[in-house]
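Design a sequence for this backbone.
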């Protein structure tokens, strides 16, 4: 049995903790009027999440709590718990036994527990709905409410049927899906509104970004061109500077060499004084002339003296000189003279003079002449010597003069050569200086090109960023003629102007803002797509649910009608009963955005058509109380047999039955109990007889309901 036990405490007349074991297919609760039997059914309603106080014959939650009596004080809370046998897992929790408990406090607070753990009402409802235990309580037929379905409107009747058929879940799901669809459509409208709102700004940003992209493309292309241009320009400056520096150094070296050689040639010219050489030449000539004159004079004097000596010699020769002596002298002198053959002239003179002396010594007379002769001889010797000396001097001077003359001539030739060299050198100097001046201006030109290059570089770096300096890492840039580079320079000037016009100030912010706006737009677009997909899915789901609902309802209705007719004809011993579908058209006013609109709503409902044997019944209102009760019972049993709930509580549903029908009712109970566990509250003996467990509920003077297990016979007594 699924319903194992009911435990109530402080609930209405059950002041004390009371428990009912339901381990039987049919459990009957019997007892006198007002003893608290219906409170048992209500406690079950209460546990199952009933929210309507009215259906528990109360106004407030507090009314459910034991209110106290003369002897028993009132309780602070009311609680009821149903313990299910869940070994079959008819409840979708993994416990063999499931306890569902609800407590209400005096402050009106409710508390739900599942196996002792506090849970939400929703959790309980979902758990029970999954086991066809709906909160609408189609399985709890309260006292006097058996004909509720007869009294209900066609639309409400349909709902009751759906609940009994266990397809409320589909309705619930459809309702949820419709709510979700509404919400989804509302979200879609909001998202679309948002998209419309940001669209102009996004368009503006997109245009800006396109501009920026074009500018960026321009910059990229420009950067490439500038890279090549700067690479060439730098190479040009470096090469030109290197070349000029080298050539300049070479020219300077050349100039130094020319200047050095000029200085040398000039110094040589200065050193070779022609005047000095001329005056030396003159002096020498004069000396020579003078020496010649002097030698002539000396020769003349010698000749003169020779004459005088000859004269004097003749005088002295006349003096007596022994021939012997002379001969002896002559021999001696001759012998001596032989030894003087290679002696100098002076020695010869001296020897000769000695001979004369000796001769004079031999002479004994003419001393004066002899003296004179000696004197003249001496003078003559001096004159001859002088002449010889002068001759030597003359010869030497003449030789010197000749050599000097030669030297003068050589000097002049050298000077002429030096002058020629000097002339050539000054031409060379002029040439080198000219070249240096040209190189100087070339250097200046290269410096200006370099300056211009640096200026351009910083200008372009300001326009394109510092990575323009990466041109230095370029390799293999082919060289081009300078004119081509100059042309490129002019072209790039125009590019620079275009870049300046394109301007990229704050572009990062715009791109960032665009990216964000675009992301937002993409997000919204995706959201719309998701919402559209969700909406489509929901529409499909609703359609499917509608189809499922319709199918199940049709099948269910068909099955119920079969049973309804069977039970009805059983109870009425004939006749017919059927549930028929009706459509009610209701006008509906709905406030739309652009005003109020009226529309029609078609509501599906259920009507009951029946015929009773021997009677002409046209409508339900024409039925007697008993007939209504029988019709209700037939319908309740039909519904329960088509989709048997786990348990069914019937509170005095059999109150109006006569004996014959009580018997049939009893049979129906027995048949139904094979599908659903039944708890019947009854005063009917026949019904009691169908129960395996009987509880007697009594109320003493303290107003507290008490429960006891009773036997059938006792139960009949207790019920009275
Ligand atoms: P009947 O056979 O006439 O239908 P019953 O056995 O079904 O009677 P109930 O209607 O279940 O009786 O019980 C009603 C009794 O419960 C009343 O006597 C009422 O005083 C008592 N009762 C209801 N609410 C409370 C409460 N909050 N505190 C105390 N007693 C209460």
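Sequence:
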């Amino acid at each position: 049995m699924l319903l194992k036990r009911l435990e109530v405490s402080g609930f209405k007349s059950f002041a004390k903790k009371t428990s009912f074991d339901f381990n039987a297919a049919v459990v009957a609760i019997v007892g006198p009027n007002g003893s608290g039997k219906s409170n048992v059914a209500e406690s079950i309603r209460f546990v199952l999440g009933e929210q309507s106080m009215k259906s528990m014959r109360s106004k407030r939650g507090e009314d459910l709590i034991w209110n106290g009596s003369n002897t028993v004080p009132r309780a602070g809370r009311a609680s009821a718990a149903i313990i299910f046998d869940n070994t079959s897992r008819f409840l979708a929790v993994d416990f063999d036994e499931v306890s569902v408990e609800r407590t209400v406090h005096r402050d009106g607070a409710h508390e739900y527990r599942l196996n002792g753990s506090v849970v939400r009402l929703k959790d309980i409802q979902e758990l029970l709905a999954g086991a066809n235990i709906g909160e609408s309580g189609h399985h709890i037929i309260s006292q006097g409410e058996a004909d509720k379905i007869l009294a209900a409107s066609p639309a409400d009747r349909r709902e009751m049927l759906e609940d009994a058929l266990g397809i409320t879940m589909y309705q619930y799901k459809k309702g949820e899906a419709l709510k979700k669809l509404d919400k989804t459509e509302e979200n879609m409208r909001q998202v679309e509104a948002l998209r419309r709102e940001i669209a102009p700004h996004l368009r503006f940003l997109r245009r800006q970004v396109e501009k920026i992209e074009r500018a960026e493309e321009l910059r990229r292309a420009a950067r490439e061109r500038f890279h090549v241009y700067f690479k060439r320009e730098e190479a040009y400056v470096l090469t030109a500077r290197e070349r000029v520096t080298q050539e300049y150094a070479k020219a300077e070296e050349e100039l130094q060499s020319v200047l050095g050689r000029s200085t040398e040639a000039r110094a040589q010219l200065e050193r070779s004084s022609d005047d000095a050489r001329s005056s030396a030449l003159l002096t020498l000539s004069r000396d020579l002339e003078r020496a010649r004159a002097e030698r002539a004079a000396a020769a003349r004097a010698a000749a003169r003296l020779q004459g005088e000596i000859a004269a004097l010699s003749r005088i002295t020769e006349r003096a007596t000189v022994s021939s012997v002596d002379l001969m002896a002298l002559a021999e001696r002198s001759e012998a001596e003279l032989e030894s003087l053959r290679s002696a100098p002239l002076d020695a010869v003179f001296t020897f000769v003079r000695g001979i004369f002396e000796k001769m004079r010594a031999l002479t004994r007379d003419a001393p004066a002449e002899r003296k004179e002769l000696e004197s003249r001889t001496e003078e003559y010797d001096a004159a001859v010597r002088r002449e010889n000396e002068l001759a030597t001097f003359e010869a030497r001077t003449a030789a010197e003069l000749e050599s000097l003359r030669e030297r003068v001539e050589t000097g002049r030739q050298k000077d002429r050569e030096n002058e020629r060299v000097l002339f050539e050198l000054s031409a060379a100097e002029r040439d080198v200086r000219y070249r240096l001046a040209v190189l100087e201006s070339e250097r200046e030109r290269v410096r200006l090109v370099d300056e211009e290059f640096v200026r351009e570089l910083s200008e372009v770096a300001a326009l394109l960023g510092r990575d323009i300096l990466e041109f230095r890492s370029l390799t293999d840039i082919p060289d081009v003629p300078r004119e081509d580079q100059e042309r490129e320079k002019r072209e790039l000037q125009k590019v620079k102007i275009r870049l300046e016009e394109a301007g990229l100030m704050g572009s990062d912010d715009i791109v960032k803002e665009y990216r964000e706006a675009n992301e937002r737009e993409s997000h919204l677009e995706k959201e719309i797509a998701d919402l559209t997909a969700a909406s489509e899915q929901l529409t499909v789901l609703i359609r499917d649910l509608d189809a499922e609902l319709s199918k199940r309802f049709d099948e269910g209705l068909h099955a119920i009608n079969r049973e309804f007719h069977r039970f009805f004809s059983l109870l009425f011993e004939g006749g017919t009963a059927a549930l028929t579908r009706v459509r009610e058209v209701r006008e509906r006013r709905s406030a739309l955005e652009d005003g109020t609109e009226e529309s029609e709503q078609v509501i599906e409902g259920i009507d009951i058509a029946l015929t009773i044997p021997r009677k002409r019944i046209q409508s339900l209102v024409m039925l007697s109380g008993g007939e209504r009760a029988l019709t209700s019972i037939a319908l309740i049993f039909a519904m329960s047999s088509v989709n048997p709930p786990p348990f069914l509580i019937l509170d005095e549903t059999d109150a109006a039955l006569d004996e014959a029908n009580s018997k049939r009712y009893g049979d129906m109970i027995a048949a139904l109990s094979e599908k659903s566990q039944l708890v019947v509250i009854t005063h009917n003996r026949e019904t009691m007889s169908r129960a395996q467990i009987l509880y007697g509920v009594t109320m003493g003077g303290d107003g507290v309901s008490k429960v006891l297990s009773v036997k059938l016979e006792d139960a009949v007594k207790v019920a009275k």
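The first helix runs from residue 37 to 47.
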